[in-house]
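Problem: given the chain below (849 residues), write out its structure.
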Amino acid sequence: MRETQLVLSNWKFKACQEQEWMEAIVPGCVHTDLLRNGIIKDPFYKTNEHDLQWIDKIDWEYETHFDVNDQLFNASTIELVFDGLDTYADVYVNGHHVLSADNMFRTWKANVASMVNAKDNVLLIKFRSPVQEDLPKIEKLGYNLPASNDQSELGGLGAQKISIFARKAPYHYGWDWGPRFVTSGIWREARLEGWSDSKITDVYVKQDQVNASKASLTVDVEIESEHEWNGLVKLSAGGQTWEQAAHLKQGINVIQLPVDIENPKLWWSRGLGDAHLYTFTAELCKDEELIAAKSVRTGLRSIRLVRDKDEVGASFYFELNGVPVFAKGANHIPNDSFITEVTDDRYRHEIVSAAESNMNMLRVWGGGIYEQSVFYELCDEYGILVWQDFMFACSMYPGDEAFLENVRLEAEENVKRLRNHPSIVLWCGNNEIDSAWAQFDEKGGWGWKKEYTSEQRAVIWADYEAVFHDILPDAVEAYAPGTQYWPSSPLISLSGDINQHAHPLSTEGDVHYWGVWHAVEPFENYNLKIGRFMSEYGFQSFPEYDTVMKFATEQDLALDSKVMRAHQKNGDGNRLIKEYMDIYMSEPKDFPAFLYMSQVLQAEAMKMAIEAHRRSMPYCMGTLYWQMNDCWPVASWAGMDYYGKWKAMQYYAKRSFADTMLSFDKTDDGIINIHAVTDLLETLNGELRLTLYDFAGVLIKQETTQVSIAGNSAAIVSSINELEWLTGCEAKRVVLYAELTQGGKLIDSKEHYFVKAKEQKLASAVIRISEVQGSNGTSFALETDVLAKQVWITAEHEGMFTDNFFDLIPGVAKIVEFRLRESGEAASKPAAAGKVQARSMIDFLAEEK
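Solution.
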């Protein structure tokens, strides 16, 4: 018998030194509760963030009263369970101290059977200030540890970086895209669990060997029993059943059932096949009586990280069910500064957006959280592979015994919690720490080492190795055997010498390339700095005008205004956007135009990067841009803003991630190569048509060729001489248009321009929008009289179009469909758009002087 009762209602909270209680929402946090009670203003508006740094300096307490239902009250064991307490907390039941918590990422529980009453129990939680808790640890350690993104000065702490001491989401202390809100609260479910006799605590489907003909599995059923007895474990999945006799001892027992499934339905990533999921149900029986049951869902697949030596270095790619997968996607950060504000619908919108953008992988970056279960469940359903970081990023960490033990328990619990998800294909120790510290490269890294003596360096590195080379890989090996562990991203390999640390030209391991942006290198370097797996790179833009106006007023619309600087966490970010815009684009006519053009600039940069990576397969087998999403309204590297609105980049990514794609590049001697790239497994036989148009739509030249490309590959399918094609034409007034068709069906199309955007001679375009007959206002055809670049269409209603920020060539119509974002889904049914407006680049340019 097992009974569960949630403890999520009738909560109140207050600062410990205050007398007046206020209403609280659980799950939640102090900041959101203060906002709902009108004590603070919107943390995201203007510069309010700066005025709310007092919240993390004081202690807070939460209290509720609850009754225990009869069935639960009669259980022999009654546990109070918290799936997440943020972060330093003491818990009291009816005045009895039952537990102390010190890790946001762990579950906390206590047996309270002896102290709860049937009626009117009091549950009190006191949260200690993370700032006051951890400040003394710096003095005890004797020096600050590196924590580049800890915005300690904004928090009023000067140079004292405390984020590394708390097992708490690192981004709470600020990042170069996020605000500093150091939260406290009950951030995941709180409940009472009552049980008697025995309960099934875990079911783990260990995939020993899986292929299309047979899945050989070992299913571990973990049972906690109050006494010794004999029973029977029954297991069912996919219409089959298995049984195993179970001799249970008092305490924790693991019953292993060997399971074979003939001709299993395999789990595939998006684009390669169905993401089929099996539900495994374990039942514990005693004399035909059902004592306990538990179900888990998983997909059957084989996964391997392939790092084979070759003539230039070593490969780095994921092989799924024997098929090499080119990973296409982005890095994921938490969807909100206040995690409990993220609804299931917001998660669904993100994962559906990833699938609709033709992605097949997201990297859960190490400065956030081990995500909510719904995130991974959606990735399972949509076939999105997950690169999962442990929660460590851009910092060095302490190595005292208590900290290391805390990390060990955190790692074991989270690996165990998430191990059945077929989407998770890699556990990574941390983000960027190996390359930042650069232990074996005296001149490399981020300059951290020069702040420390040789003795201090030795201690700091030994502490690093204890966590990332011992504790974390041991947890993966013990609790998810067969799953690959990667110590740090980026990394070449654990060579123990200078060849361990990755750089932009590494020919092994994964690469973070930030020369474009941080080092102001030209976009064209994306074509040159290509690694085996590009796990980070990016370029910033602003969100659209409507989003900006949610945190600013008209008076704030200037790059150097206090509000715009507050919503740009990357220091010189606004200046960098302007500097790159001056290089590649014409002058915007006003600030709203600057917002639009910043998105186009970002989109063009990411298109160049993504397509260069994909053209380089199989040398390069992964491209994950930074970043998918935002945690507040801000200028950042995100493809979707905080409100889930797709920026220009997201539409560009959708096109550049297409399962079969055309791409152009040009050699130094003026040869234009047209590449075809396909992730599909079948050979592609089609027709490539190249057409040269002038900007008025006049067809100047056309050529058609038959093309063939093997499945899961990239190849040059045509090469032309630029000078020959431009004979008699002005390069700044023509566009080359490529169309790939198969059996008369358009597979992909792409434009190529012969000069930079700022050199192109655009004319004012009249864009005609006509409703597609019979679509009931959901589909529209767009046509233009002259070339219209980066056409941005907006609708009267809240929602999104199937394509946007595209180029229109006269005579080449574009059909788009409008979809409401219902239930958080980008892929919801077509809906009436209402009034539709279209603007293009020419509408945002300043008049030529």
